[in-house]
Amino acid sequence: MSDLAVSTHPIADTKVLQGQNIAAKVRARTGRHSVLLPCLCLVLVLSIIFYIWTRVEVVKLGYEISSALREKEAAIIAHNELKLEIATLCSAQQVERRAREKMGMNLPRKEQLIIIK
Q1: What are the helix (H) ranges across the chain?
Q2: Which of 5, 51, 76, 115 is least surrounded, with the fewest CB atoms within 10 Å of its CB?
Q3: Stated pTM of the model
């Protein structure tokens, strides 16, 4: 007799029920796999996308850091040049030279001096 044949014999009925149970179990397992495989594929694709996104962000931040370091170096150079200019402008000889050349100032004559006691 076949596993799926209908019979009035009690042992044959048990075989039919067992055959139906096996078919139901196979369908249940197949159903789980049909949902599980796409879910696993989706998780894999999302993981790959996340990995690529993080790598792109790391590269982008690397470029930003490099740009910021270049700006910092330029600012340090400009700062040092300005400090040197301040030091040059504050020296007494430079002040006197600029006063004579640019403003036409001279040392006062004796009659222009007023001594206060």
Answers
A1: 10-90, 92-103
A2: 115
A3: 0.48
